[in-house]
Structure formats: C-alpha cells, structure tokens
Amino acid sequence: MLIGNKKIFAFLIDDLEEGSGDLQSVNIWINNEDVTYIDNIVYLPQFVQSLKNDLLWMRSNRIKECIGVKTEKDAVKKYFKELDEEAVKYRFLNYGPTTDDVRSFIFESENSIFIIYKLNDSITVKSISICKPELKQIYERIIEVLS
User: Fold this and answer.
1) Is residue 3 part of a domain?
2) 11-39: per-residue pLDDT in tens?
3) 19 CB contacts (<8 Å, ≥6 apart)?
4) Which of 31, 37, 85, 115 has its CA 20 to 30 A from that of 101?
5) Domain range for residue 123?
6) Rounded to 5 degrees, what angle do the CA atoms 74, 119, 2 make?
7) Structural domains of the chain, count
8) CA dist 78 to 18, 64, 84, 88, Å?
C-alpha cells in the first residue's frame, strides 16, 4: 500500500506476512528515491510511536523557520556542513536502523516544509518541499494503517 506520493514523500507498506509478528516491511520514499534501500524492516511498536512523536511535533508548530535559514541552500549549509545544536532540533526520519541510510532534516518556510536529505552512499545533498497539511495527512494515514 502506498501512502503519499513517491515523487515527493511516501511510505510504501508491503502486505503483512503471516507469522511476521511485530516486524513489517516499510519503504520510505523522498523525491522518487527509496531512502530505506538497505533495511526496510521496522519493529512496529517502536516505529509507530516514532511516527506519532513526529506527528505531534508537526502539530505543535515546533517546526519553524530555523535561525539563519531562509533558503534550501542555507539549510544545506547549516544542516550538513555546520550541524550545530540548532540544526539537531530539526532532525527528521530518525527511526533507528530502518533510516540509518539517510540523514535528513526539515524546516518550514511560509506554507511549505522542506526536507533536506543525503543518502549515506551519496555525496549529494538533496531537498524537496511539501505542504505541511499534506505531510501531516501522510503521517496520520500511516499511523492508522500500522496501528
């Protein structure tokens, strides 16, 4: 089941296999790239709780314009070159081993959320924007499906 749009941001959930218990295959897509290309097996209780925590974070409006970040270029510099204490607050997709293959951050600018990310096997830092309500809806849906 696909939740979201692979070209922007999505979760792809495989059918639950009988006997798999609390383990589930979930791929995360950003900008038409599978960012869970090595390990896509999640431990459902922990993964769902992490998703809920991120959704609460989004709903609380704590994703704000990061100090000194007005453009995607500023964000790349702050998040991937300086990595100061302020930037760590904006860490995204920090879900344990499943997301160890990607380092990502988010920040808000006007009505959009910018996802800045780098795959571990790449030297290129990439970014994409998504409407905040759309990102919330994706999280609400995946939590509903996996719960």
Assistant:
1) no
2) 999 876 666 789 999 999 999 999 998 99
3) none
4) 85
5) 44-146
6) 105
7) 1
8) 45, 15, 7, 10
- Give the chain's end-to-end CA distance (angstroms, integer): 14
> Using one digit for the tens of pLDDT, what is the confidence trace for 62-96?
666 555 666 667 767 666 665 556 666 778 898 98
Q: Are 97 and 38 in contact (CB under 8 A)?
A: no
d(CA 109, CA 137): 19
Which of 38-42, 70-74, 97-101 comes out lowest in average pLDDT?
70-74
Amino acid found at 118: K
**The total number of residues written for the chain in this structure:** 147
- Written as six digits, the tokens of 9 are 């941001």
The answer to whether residue 36 is domain-embedded is no
Residue 109: predicted pLDDT: 72
Residue 33 lies in a domain: no
Distance CA 73, CA 109 (A): 13
pLDDT recorded at residue 67: 57
